[in-house]
Design a protein that fits this description.
By secondary structure, the protein is an alpha/beta fold. The protein has a single domain, classed as Rossmann fold. The chain contains 10 helices and 6 strands. The strands form 2 sheets. The chain has a 4-stranded parallel beta sheet with strand order 1-6-5-2. Strand 5, helix 10 and strand 6 form a beta-alpha-beta unit. 39% of the residues are buried. The N terminus is likely disordered.
Length: 253
């Protein structure tokens, strides 16, 4: 089965299961075991501890800048090595709270937070989303998809696309080679690990594409996606994630 079809089918199946489970078990907070009045809610005390990313940010990769520079300022990393993508933005800094949200989605298949995640991401990536021709999820190799049964990036993309009224193409990018997990690898190791493993499935001449993923760690996956889309003729490639690492100690585990 086409991985994109499997991802979409899995989304619908888990949606039905989730609705049924709400009839049996009351919804709980996204960040605790507290019972809430509806799915996707976070109690005020924990909501106030979420670290939403806002200006000043690097104009390219979205890394938080220490002061308020001139418009269009970039961080040291982007100044030293321009990324293949045009911009990258994220809703949250990847801290303990964001880690729980991401891992519950990525490893637990918990999807009741998807609508609120989409709202946060829409706010963070509004400029790129406004001009996008379509959204594309970061791809997962079919063997990993067979084991997990879903691609969390596809879930985020589908929900976000519906929220902002854009089309999405679940099969626009594919992982043609299975590589080791990115977890625990350095930035250079991540780039080498994912290099050449992602391909575009068609020509996208002149298109503006927003690639969706759960976490921006070093940017290696987005770089590989951007290079594939550029090779396929895309005019602009932007990245948008739920969270991004802002400290080396927060590398995704």
């Amino acid at each position: 089965m086409d991985p994109s079809i499997r991802a979409t089918a899995g989304f619908r199946k888990r949606g039905a299961i989730s609705r049924l489970s709400d009839l049996v078990w009351p919804p709980r907070s996204l960040l605790s075991e507290a019972i809430v009045d509806r799915p996707g809610v976070i109690e005020p005390a924990l909501w106030g501890e979420l670290h939403f990313l806002a200006e000043p940010l690097c104009a390219q990769c979205g890394f938080p800048l220490p002061d308020d520079p001139d418009h269009g300022a970039v961080c040291g990393a982007c100044a030293g090595r321009a990324p293949a993508f045009d911009t990258a933005r994220a809703a949250l800094a990847y801290d303990d709270h964001a880690r729980r949200l991401v891992l519950d989605l990525k490893r637990g298949g918990r999807r009741d937070g998807l609508p609120v995640f989409a709202r946060w991401m829409a706010a963070a990536g509004q400029e790129a989303l406004a001009k996008a021709d379509f959204l594309a999820p970061a791809p997962m190799h079919w063997t990993r998809l067979a084991v997990r049964s879903f691609n969390q990036a596809a879930w985020l993309t589908q929900t976000l696309a519906k929220s902002v009224g854009k089309s999405w193409r679940p099969g626009a990018l594919t992982r043609t080679k299975r590589r080791r997990s990115q977890e625990g690898l350095s930035a250079s190791e991540r780039r080498r690990n994912v290099g050449g493993a992602i391909k575009a499935s068609a020509r996208f001449e002149g298109k503006i594409v927003v690639v969706i993923d759960d976490v921006f760690t070093t940017g290696a996956t987005l770089e590989a996606c951007a290079r594939a889309l550029r090779k396929a003729g895309a005019a602009e490639v932007h990245g948008l994630t739920l969270a991004r690492v802002v400290r080396p100690t927060d590398i995704v585990r």
